[in-house]
Amino acid sequence: MKYSKTIIIDIGEPFEEDFIRKGKLISKKTIEIKILENGEVKPQSYAYKEPSDIYKEIRDTGEVNLNYCYVKDFSLKDSYLKFNNIIIDGYVQLSKFSAIHAFFDCSDYKTQIIDFSETVFPEGDIEFSQSIFANGRVNFSLSIFKNCELLLLQTKFIKAKVSFDCNDFKNSELNLFDSEINLKITFVLSKFNKYCNFQFKNCNYLDLRGSINRDVINLTNNSKNKHFNIETIDLRNFINLGIIQIDWVRNNVKQLIENQGNETSHREKAEQFRILKENFHKIGQYDDEDKAYVEYRKHEMIALLKERTKGKFLNVFWAYPFYGIAWFVKDWLGSFGTNPWRVLANMGIFYFLFSAIYFFLPKFYNCGIYTTNKNVDLLTDFGRALYHSAITFLTIGYGDYYPSGIIRIFSGIEGFIGLFLMAYFVVAFSRKVLR
Question: Are residues 121 and 188 in the same domain?
């Protein structure tokens, strides 16, 4: 995963110079910012606006136009209400909003917030496209979006944690196509009712805990990317009533969950893989469904092992052997019934293993494989071992050759293994074909 290539090199001081875009005076002050992007330093100029001037515009017109503007320590929730001496805690109502190619900055990364929380956004397009949020937390929590499209196309969040927690997007779409998030973006306990485009350029951490999806969330890797666009995703308690567009290989889905590390338990990881398994089934990506199912069962087995042994020392002596047997039978032999070709390969391994046993054992012990009829074709020792292993493994048993001595025990074991693996193969193969 390659993180954001955009780095803020220097933010200059505002100076007196008219900032004009498309023949319109935006501000009488200009500020220049040096940005390192793709290894190249690019100086960019912005119109400089004091937050107090913006708060006056909101009070007088309810409109916010921050296109091409640099704004520092912007807060609608607290600073705007205090500036206008509004004591009653409530929502800020906007009639129009646009912030294309804007730059939102914080003076203190740890304490300052770029705050759009508890804001009622207007209908129509809400633009943050090609903007930069830097050096602080960005808060859109508990805001109201009605019949709008929230556009954050090619938006960059540099050293900024972004929160859309507890939002009900109602009939609103959300578009973060080609955006860069080098820390974390959260949608905890949010509701997605329409299409959401999360085709990030890169995103370090996407948190969807407790959220509800009723339409389409597009997480597929941006076709421009040669790297995985999301590093980690958190789907704990996520309710998927719609579909998630995601690809196991292109999105590196296994690592999306595994990268949570010790932050989540094996039981929680298992639940997230189960959610993805059901989603893959819903959208017809059956191979991806199988992969998600395997990871779900693996983490479920480990979670059960830890639950059985936690604080119970004596349980270690039986829980680990049971886990080992379960791992061998369920996972190693056939990937929990999802891989018939692995079962077939293991059938071959066991066949040749027992053939070797039948060939070498008579050289050290008083045992062997003998014929009941002198008129049958006589086979070499190695040919006899291969033949006896085949008819035993496949439970054919013609009766022309029989085992003696200790080989009888191994023949019984091979017969059981052969019967079990043939049934395992039929189940796994039928599952693939019928689906």
Answer: yes
